[in-house]
């Protein structure tokens, strides 16, 4: 694991004295579980780039590559750069770490480098990794199987429950401390659940919300081996409530999964979507070459 840097330790952790009858609570900028996640998108100002001397440009390129190198000591635990097609951005960055300052340091290092004044930040989104409340524990999973027609305590039922129990811990850890998949096609979009009269997600009973999300999840699982996703929560942190990041083996799989899942009631009736940012995973060097820098 990377060692803490000055950027990650500017705000010290504290301990709040215990209130009578209550335990002491750690005070920290790091979540008790999970990581901070930022999606950052930028556009190069070509006019300003053209004014750079060859020496400044060379130094800027070196600094840019070093800043986005995921293997350096100062890098967040997870760091990925994307080539972004279209006018919304030239490139994007996804960064994850327990420390929000280590994540944010990527943005600040880019802006403070020799190419900083040639960059315009076009969009950003922040959130936290989490295990959704709709992810069932083993007992709930077993009950769900019965509701779907499995016979309690049958051989098939037991095998499915045992299999789920065996992978549950790893699955939960993978959601709060995710690895980046080795697939080159990606997209990101923020989303909300509706709060409208007659279609207010948050007024539904938990059992109904859980049923709808289970249906949604079954659709997603049909894309196993082709698409993987990370859902980050931004309630109270950004303008939208959740962020969705998808990676796929082929770009058409991104289209297929988003299209198919929109027919699920959880999406068709209750979901609202923000802007989509398509990305192609690239090294900093590949990114600069593509952008003709």
Descriptive account of the structure:
The mean pLDDT is 91. This protein is 35% helix and 25% strand. It has a domain at 29-129: Apc35880, domain 1 (Alpha-Beta Plaits, 2-Layer Sandwich). With 293 residues, it is α+β, with helices and mostly antiparallel strands. Strands 3-5-4-13-7-11-10-6 form an eight-stranded antiparallel β-barrel. Strands 1-2 form a two-stranded antiparallel sheet. A two-stranded antiparallel sheet has the order 8-9.
How far apart, in Å, are the first and last alpha carbons?
32 Å
Number of helices: 9
Q: What is the CATH homology-level superfamily of the domain at 29-129?
A: Apc35880, domain 1
Structural class computed from helices and strand pairing: alpha+beta
Which shape, going by the Cα principal axes? Answer: globular
CATH topology of the domain at 29-129: Alpha-Beta Plaits
Mean pLDDT, nearest integer?
91
- Uncertain residue ranges: none
Topology order in helix (H) and strand (E) letters: EEEHHEEHEHHEEEHEEHHEEH
Percent helix range: 25-40%
How many strand segments?
13
Strand content: 25-35%
In terms of quaternary structure, the protein is: single chain
Q: Write out the strand line-up for the largest beta sheet, numbering strands in chain order.
A: 3-5-4-13-7-11-10-6
In this structure, how is the largest beta sheet organized? 8 strands, antiparallel, barrel
Q: Give the name of the CATH architecture of the domain at 29-129.
A: 2-Layer Sandwich
């Amino acid at each position: 694991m990377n060692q803490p840097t000055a950027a990650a330790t500017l705000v010290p952790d504290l301990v709040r004295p215990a209130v009578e009858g209550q335990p002491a609570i750690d005070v920290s900028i790091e979540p008790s579980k999970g990581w901070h996640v930022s999606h950052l998108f930028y556009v190069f100002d070509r006019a300003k780039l053209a004014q750079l001397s060859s020496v400044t440009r060379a130094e800027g390129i070196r600094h840019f590559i070093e800043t986005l190198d995921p293997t350096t000591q100062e890098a967040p635990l997870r760091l990925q750069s994307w080539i972004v097609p279209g006018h919304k951005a030239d490139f994007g960055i996804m960064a994850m770490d327990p420390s929000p300052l280590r994540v944010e340091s990527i943005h600040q290092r880019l802006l403070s480098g020799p190419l900083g004044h040639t960059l315009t930040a076009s969009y950003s989104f922040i959130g936290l990794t989490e295990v959704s409340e709709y992810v069932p524990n083993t007992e709930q999973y077993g009950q769900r199987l019965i509701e779907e027609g499995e016979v309690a305590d049958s051989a098939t039922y037991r095998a499915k429950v045992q299999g789920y129990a065996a992978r549950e811990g790893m699955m939960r850890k993978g959601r709060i401390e995710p690895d980046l998949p080795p697939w080159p096609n990606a997209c990101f979009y923020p989303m909300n659940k509706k709060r409208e009269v007659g279609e207010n997600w948050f007024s539904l009973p938990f059992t109904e919300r859980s049923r709808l999300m289970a249906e949604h999840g079954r659709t997603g699982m049909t894309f196993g081996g082709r698409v993987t996703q990370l859902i980050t929560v931004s309630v109270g942190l950004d303008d939208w409530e959740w962020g969705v990041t998808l990676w796929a083996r082929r770009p058409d799989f991104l289209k297929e999964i988003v299209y198919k899942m929109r027919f699920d009631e959880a999406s068709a009736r209750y979901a609202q979507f923000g802007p989509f940012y398509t990305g192609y995973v690239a090294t900093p060097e590949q990114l600069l070459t593509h952008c003709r820098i």
